[in-house]
Design goal:
Distance between the termini of chain A: 31 Å
Order of helices and strands of chain B: HHEEEEEHEEEHHH
Number of helices of chain B: 6
Distance between the termini of chain B: 40 Å
Radius of gyration of chain A: 26 Å
Helix content of chain B: 25-40%
Order of helices and strands of chain A: HHEEEEEEEEEEEEHEEEEHHEE
Number of strands of chain A: 18
Number of domains of chain A: 3
Structural class of chain A: alpha+beta
Largest interface: A-B, 69 and 78 residues
Oligomer: heterodimer
Strand order of the largest sheet of chain A: 1-16-10-11
Radius of gyration of chain B: 22 Å
Helix content of chain A: 10-25%
Structural class of chain B: alpha+beta
Shape of chain B: elongated
Strand content of chain A: 15-25%
């Protein structure tokens, strides 16, 4: 549990009686150190299936803002994730005096405050929130290549209208790279849902947040729970299968187990938390201790990175494409260092 | 019950194992020994075992190890067929077979995704085989009554020194001694394996800065 780690950190910073730093502050520092560790070492690769449909038909009440004198503009167009949808045909179902324009904007000829709109829009998919770097993507079992929006526009200027089940690319250049759009759009998919007043559209898309692992647990003991982790089986052929480097979210309370952080690595997060506490809080400030704990953390990061190299999972994502390092065939890294000649210290 | 290593640590810090006064109990000593064992295993990669994974139909990815932490995969083979699998990366799988997720058959390749996940290609259509995976691992932290890793006598001193380095970090005015012990621990581990020597020099620099020597 995290509370055990916090107790150890308190011993490290000589604040066992909690006189200098409260539990809340220390927990915040722990979360920060934990994120730092995951960011520095990227020890987790996760698989997920996003079973959501690529296009979305929905009805939604929109609030209109008065624009110019007697016109209103639908705020939907200003949603960051929907800026591309301006070119999509809108079906205005129940809207007095509002007509779609060629540019895709919907304007009202008379001022109205709200309207009920039914539309069929291409939405980008949201990646799982813990995604740090995408390693592999497939649609219904077919591997996809990654492509930028600019390059796709160069190759096919009407790419947003293309439909078909021969999905080849995952277009990534969406805001903050948290979303993607398949090219071409798979056909025959629809979903009915709805949003409410004042709620950004993307908050009302829970189905887009895929969290299921592709796999189930299976080891010597098939019944093992893996320390509280829940694995569910998702069929990777059902939708978008992704493998990605993950920075998993931190537990919310100190009573929880940090299941994503492997036990032998926990002490490095503890050292980093201690170093942060010693550098920030004047009551426990101690440069000498801080330096030693920071060194222990850095050493831990080096150890984990080195282990990753031996695991042969080091993946360097270059500007275009994914390249892997650490093969047995020599190269810069050469053969991983395995202690074959080393005497076994275990009885 | 106190272990042999814990007893030696208590002796080195001059504590009575039944009535320790500077430390609140066995937990701190045990934590320190476990930390030293963890670090020793990670640095030397000397502890190995074979995992048996029942392969399931339509499943490509398997989780390795429930309690122990796998830190390296030496190889994988199908137990029934006595055939080794070839290691590849995800990118190779994608290049050689863009539809690899749909392919079914007897596995002949594997890929290590991270410290916990192993991917096989292709997967079976049904449950038929056991996969043997040779791994390097760090044992789970031992607790009362559970399996305690037995360390050869020649290496006990090393583990004790590592544990003392962890323990003295918690004691006021013992920081320099703790750093010195840890530096020695790294040096001794480094002298016995293909250990990355730069870490020793890094800790030595910290040691010099903190002790002024």
């Amino acid at each position: 549990m995290i509370s055990t780690s916090l107790t150890r950190i308190r011993k490290l910073i000589r604040d066992v009686d909690k006189s200098a730093i409260s539990d809340v502050v220390l927990f915040k520092l722990y979360k920060r150190a934990r994120l730092e560790f995951f960011g520095d070492t990227l020890p987790r690769v996760r698989g997920a299936v996003l079973p959501n449909p690529p296009s979305w038909r929905f009805s939604r009440m929109f609030e209109f803002e008065r624009w110019q004198e007697e016109k209103a503009v639908c705020p939907f167009f200003r949603d960051p994730i929907n800026h591309y949808s301006c070119t999509q045909p809108w079906e205005v179902q129940q809207l007095q005096g509002i007509v779609p324009t060629e540019e895709g904007g919907t304007f009202s000829s008379s001022p109205v405050d709200a309207a009920f709109v039914s539309c069929n829009v291409l939405f980008p998919h949201l990646f799982p929130s813990d995604l740090h770097q995408l390693l592999y993507a497939a649609w219904q079992g077919r591997s996809l290549d990654l492509i930028g929006k600019k390059k796709l526009e160069e190759e096919d200027e009407r790419w947003m209208e293309r439909e078909g089940d021969n999905v080849r690319y995952l277009c990534l250049d969406w805001p903050a790279k948290q979303m993607f759009l398949p090219y071409p759009q798979p056909t025959g998919q629809s979903y009915s849902g709805g949003g409410g007043f004042g709620v950004p559209v993307y908050y009302s898309l829970p189905l887009l947040q895929g969290t299921g692992l592709i796999v189930s647990v299976s080891s010597i003991d098939p019944e093992e729970s893996g320390g509280g982790m829940v694995f569910e089986i998702c069929n990777p052929l059902d939708g978008f299968a992704l493998f990605f480097l993950s920075i998993p979210p931190s537990p919310e309370t100190v009573g929880e187990e940090d299941v994503w952080l492997l036990r032998p690595f926990r002490k490095y997060v503890e050292f980093r938390t201690a170093a942060l506490a010693l550098s920030i809080h004047s009551e426990v400030k101690n440069e000498e201790l801080e330096k030693v704990y920071k060194a222990r953390y850095d050493l831990g990061v080096s150890i984990v990175k080195d282990l990753k190299r031996v695991l042969k999972t080091d993946i360097v994502v270059k500007k275009r494409g994914i390249h892997e390092m650490g093969s047995y065939s020599g190269g810069k890294l050469g053969r991983p260092r395995l202690p074959d000649h080393y005497p076994n210290p275990w009885r | 019950m106190i272990t042999e290593l814990e007893r030696e640590v208590l002796e080195r810090i001059g504590e009575d194992e039944t009535l320790p006064d500077n430390f609140t109990g066995e937990d701190e000593v045990r934590d320190a020994v476990v930390d030293a064992l963890d670090e020793y295993c990670m640095l030397t990669r000397s502890l190995r075992k074979t995992l048996l994974i029942p392969l399931r139909g339509e499943v490509n990815v398997y989780v390795m190890g429930a309690e122990d932490t796998v830190i390296g995969v030496l190889g994988a083979r199908l137990k029934g067929q006595k055939r080794r699998l070839e290691h590849v990366g995800l990118e190779t799988l994608k290049r050689d077979d863009p539809l690899w997720l749909r392919t079914r058959g007897s596995p002949w390749r594997y890929s290590v995704l991270d410290f916990t996940k192993l991917l096989i290609y292709p997967c079976y259509g049904e449950d038929v085989e056991i996969l043997e995976v040779d791994v390097i691992y760090v044992p789970d932290a031992y607790t009362e009554g559970e399996f305690v890793p037995e360390v050869r006598g020649a290496f006990q001193g090393l583990i004790v020194e590592g544990a003392l380095a962890f323990l003295y970090l918690l004691v006021p005015n013992k920081l320099k001694y703790a750093v010195e012990l840890y530096s020695n621990f790294l040096k001794r581990v480094g002298g016995k394996s293909e250990f990355n020597g730069s870490w020793v020099s890094y800790m030595n620099r910290i040691f010099r800065e903190t002790t002024g020597k």
